[in-house]
Each structure stands twice: as C-alpha cells, then as structure tokens.
Amino acid sequence: MGSRGGRHKAREAAVQALYQWQLTEQLPNEEQFIFDHQLDGVDFEYFYHIVNEVPLHMHELDDQLVPHLDREVGEVDPVERAILRLGVYELEFQPQVPYKVVLDEAVELARTFGAEHGHKFVNAVLDKVALKLRTTEVQASRAASPSTL
Question: Residue 98: what are its φ and ψ, rounded to 5°?
C-alpha cells in the first residue's frame, strides 16, 4: 500500500479532509482535494480508504472515544476530533498497523495541526482506546519494555 512516508502524508491529508468534512458535513471530492492541496508523495489508496471509511464508521468510532473524554465528542476541538477518529479507526479496523505507530502518528498529526497541548490529549485518549481494542498487543509491548520512572 505504499511507504511509511506515503502513509504519513496520507494521514496528514486525511486529517485535513476529515476536518473539512466535520465542518461542512459533506465528504470532500477526493480528486479535487488532492488537486487543491497539491499533494505529492501521498499513499493515495490509503488516503481514499481513510476519507471514505472514517465517516461511515463515525458513530462506532465516537462510541470508542466517549468513555475516555472529559467532554462531549462535539465539544472536542475539530482538528483533534479528526485525529482521534482517524486513530480509533486505525486501531479498530487496521490491525496490521501496530498500535504504537497509530499513537505516534496521531501525536505527530496533533503537533502539526492541533492546539499547543493537543498532542498530550490525543495521546492520552488513544492510549486508553488502544488498551481496550488492542489489549494483547499493548500488554505484550509494555511487558517487553517496562518504563522506568
């Protein structure tokens, strides 16, 4: 499906497209979006997949988020909400993507597009979702590399 760099760029573009969708409630025309944003090096297959699948599963994704939020989903900053939905989608429906990659990518996206401390919020929420959706993977990873305080 493309290189890691292409996937990262696909996620960056998808966050922007999902942000636009959240504000307008209309899915962007992917070809027009790509043209307007002059996207180079993007894993287009992954971009299309994300932009089409996240809205289809929005309620299910939000159901995974709600127990870990301190406010209503609709009150979460729209950029962070797009990143969280993308992260939960990958955790739930893309098991071939390691959970650490999902979290690292989401944090990076939040640093790039979100508010000053948004990456901490995104990391905390997705870490809790990962523990629920990928329990075995998370526990195995934590057992293999216990953190030192």
Answer: -55, 145
